[in-house]
Amino acid sequence: MPNSTPATPATPPAYDAIADWYETEFLAAQGDADPIGINAALAALLGAAPEGPGPACLEIGCGTGAHAAAVRALGWTPVGVDLSSGMLAYAAGRLPVARADAEHLPIGTGSLDAVIAVMVHTDMPGYARVVAEAARILRPGGRFVHVGVHPCFCGGFADRGDPAATVIRPGYLDAGRWTTDSWTSNGVRDKVGATHWPLPDLLHMVADAGLVLERFAEGGTPVPITFSLRASKPEL
User: Fold this and answer.
1) Helical pair 199-208 and 127-137, crossing angle rounded to 10 deg
2) How confident is the model at residue 13 (pLDDT cuts 50, 70, 90)?
3) Model-level pTM greater than 0.85?
4) Average pLDDT in the 207-221 region?
């Protein structure tokens, strides 16, 4: 695998260009399975909605709305924002959506009970600002759930070509490195690139936003593919 080199982060048109492939090939290949534990993480960390009419749960970077059904099954009312109009064209049939910048959400302060970000932090070089926005729009006691590729075992430095083992090369410590390097041509990174943040940096983003880290989960085998966390906004 070649060494990563600095480059310009992926922009919304990149996802516009792959929206059809993402919906009809990438997602279709997964079927109803949960191979990397995304639905399991949402069930464990987002959890059931409070009793009564389903409160809104905002998904930041909702893409084609692939996770809306899992959120709805937990009793929440999913809503989503994304920058890619191509992805939102598919998402609109699954949940209410708006085109918006995740770093400047058009949502009032302290207005939501839950915010999730699923498999998007590597698409957002300014993820620290995104988490800060999530914290801003949460009500006291509200929960933020992050589900993303595992920073320790996934990235341009990780070769997952052998199903029985993951080979880790230098590069994990390169915070903020953007790359299209990938061990497979069947994924997203080689098409739109990804920004890497080591685990401490990712956790610091949540803590620096004033959220309280509560629970964690890993998904995928034999070496974890996803790392997830739940954090809450302190009560007044």
Assistant:
1) 30
2) low
3) yes
4) 97
70 CA to centre of own chain? 14
Q: Could you tell me the pLDDT band of residue 152, with boundaries at 50, 70 and 90?
A: very high
Q: Are 71 and 57 in contact (CB under 8 A)?
A: yes
Question: Domains in the chain, start-ordered, CATH in brackets?
Answer: 12-232 (3.40.50.150)
What pLDDT score does 143 carry? Answer: 98
SS (H, E, C) the chain: CCCCCCCCCCCHHHHHHHHHHHHHHHHHHHCCCCCCCHHHHHHHHHCCCCCCCCCEEEEECCCCCCCHHHHHHCCCEEEEEECCHHHHHHHCCCCCEEECCCCCCCCCCCCEEEEEEECCHHHCCCHHHHHHHHHHHEEEEEEEEEEEECCCCCCCCEEEEECCEEEECCCCCCCCEEECCCCCCCCCHHHHCEEECCHHHHHHHHHHCCCEEEEEEEECCCCCCEEEEEEECCCC
Under 8 Å between Cβ of 123 and 10 = yes
Quote the tokens at residue 103.
């770093």
Asked whether the beta carbons of 190 and 198 are under 8 A apart, the reply is no
For residues 132 and 85, give the distance between their C-alpha atoms in angstroms, rounded to a whole number: 24
> Could you tell me which of 59, 64, 103, 65 has the C-alpha nearest to residue 81?
59
